[in-house]
Amino acid sequence: QLDNIVRHSSLNAVVATPNRASILAAAESADNASSGHDVDSRSPRGRVILVKDNICTTEFPTTAASSILKSFKSPYDATVVKLLQDAGALIAGKTNMDEFGMGSHNMHSYHGATKMSRVAGEERSAGGSSGGSALAVAMDQCWAALGTDTGGSVRLPAAYTGTVGFKPSYGLLSRWGVIAYANSLDTVGILGNSVDSVEGTFDAINAYDPQDPTSLPLSTRSRLGQRKTSSSSLKIGIPLEYNISTLSPAVREAWKRSMRQLQERGHSLHTVRLPATQHALSAYYVLAPAEASSNLARYDGVRYGSRAEGIDGTPESVLYAKTRGEGFGSEVQRRILLGAFTLSAQAIDNYFIQAQKVRRLVQQDFDRVLRVPNTLVESSTEIKDEGVDVLLCPTAPTLAPQLSELQNQDPLQAYVNDVFTVPASLAGLPAISVPVDVAEQSRQPELKAQGIQESAGMQIIGQYGDDKAVLDVARELM
Ligand code: GLN
């Protein structure tokens, strides 16, 4: 895998790698750590793991793919990085992303775009914003990779690259040392080639962290643990609102295949309605930029960020404007403007407040159709008779688009890719994307990444805290 990092460097999935001496030293200590242990397909011990460039590491720079952080090196490791190191993983580098996590095709990066090469010579989108992590997994440059998912940034790249991408319930994984985009939505996520590697990585980092104020406290974690696991025959919900007219035929075909597969495994299918889904995307694109505009205020060239050159001694307002104008890319600037507008006195009632109401409706939709109670709003842990265990729907409306088609695309077109991933984000629910073959084929991730095999991402969404059920159903689809 370390050789693959070098061999496939033209794909631009990995943006920082350690020097050879530290790789050898780390590999040796990982070897020592694993000797005497049985090789466990789920354990990150001795495994190569890559980390998205918005997660702080002391060994590598942390730029969030932004020019404003081009010379930033964190003085501390993020909790999730530390936990992986404690578990014996080899953190071998940083992966490319859309600047500050804003984007769906990994094209808005200070490091240049991530490019998924296809056999026909056409380059396709690896998805965003964790496109580097997903492609690195697909190209076997690592055993697993960390990403972040605010509105789909782990699941969408997983769908486009034919890998597994998991966004756990909000608050389970620590965000200490993760550069904030939209705090109420930001979740660390995991990409891998199998549900086992994803689950093993998740288990190693799923811990309460007193340094993250949104980390789920131990008392709530133990309540989640008390939930009775349901039988081997599950009720799978098929949300009708996801069957949109613009769904590509290949994705619809893969959706039907996965329904059949789960039925053959003894599960039953039930159509459900989630009416607020149609407003979820608009609500997300009000709330996420609003939080981002506030978060990104700190990068002013004084407290944080690289200052624009030749302006020392000028009034502060000039210093800020020039630093931020040069340091942020166009998409980030658009989000800051959008967020500042929707939070302004004349717009807040019509935008921000309405979007918060839609967010609540989206949460209520899920709680209504899922039979597992939402522990955050209900005291009971009893599973209801009515309702379904998990939901099955596509991750994205289409397969990975060609980069050439995206060059002059309207930003709104990119936002539309997130239509199926943002509802689970707004509700904080666990969701995973698994690759399902579009046609009958064998499974080889590396071939898939080169376009020799085509797969569509299918998403399993579960109730808050029901992460294990989501992972179990995902395993049955692989
Ligand atoms: N594409 C979405 C956005 O640009 C999702 C990003 C994410 O999950 N980080 O906001």
TrEMBL record:
It catalyses: L-glutamyl-tRNA(Gln) + L-glutamine + ATP + H2O = L-glutaminyl-tRNA(Gln) + L-glutamate + ADP + phosphate + H(+). The active site is at residues 52, 129, 153. Pfam families: Amidase. Coiled coil: none annotated. GO terms for cellular component: glutamyl-tRNA(Gln) amidotransferase complex; mitochondrion. Its main location: mitochondrion. One of its GO terms (biological process) is glutaminyl-tRNAGln biosynthesis via transamidation. Keywords: ATP-binding, Ligase, Mitochondrion, Nucleotide-binding, Protein biosynthesis. Residues 8-471 form the Amidase domain. The keyword Mitochondrion applies. The keyword Cytoplasm does not apply. It is found in: Mitochondrion. It is an enzyme of class 6 (ligase). Its EC number is 6.3.5.7. One of its GO terms (molecular function) is glutaminyl-tRNA synthase (glutamine-hydrolyzing) activity. Subunit of the heterotrimeric GatCAB amidotransferase (AdT) complex, composed of A, B and C subunits. Belongs to the amidase family. GatA subfamily. PANTHER family: GLUTAMYL-TRNA(GLN) AMIDOTRANSFERASE SUBUNIT A, MITOCHONDRIAL, TRANSAMIDASE. Allows the formation of correctly charged Gln-tRNA(Gln) through the transamidation of misacylated Glu-tRNA(Gln) in the mitochondria. The reaction takes place in the presence of glutamine and ATP through an activated gamma-phospho-Glu-tRNA(Gln). This is Glutamyl-tRNA(Gln) amidotransferase subunit A, mitochondrial.
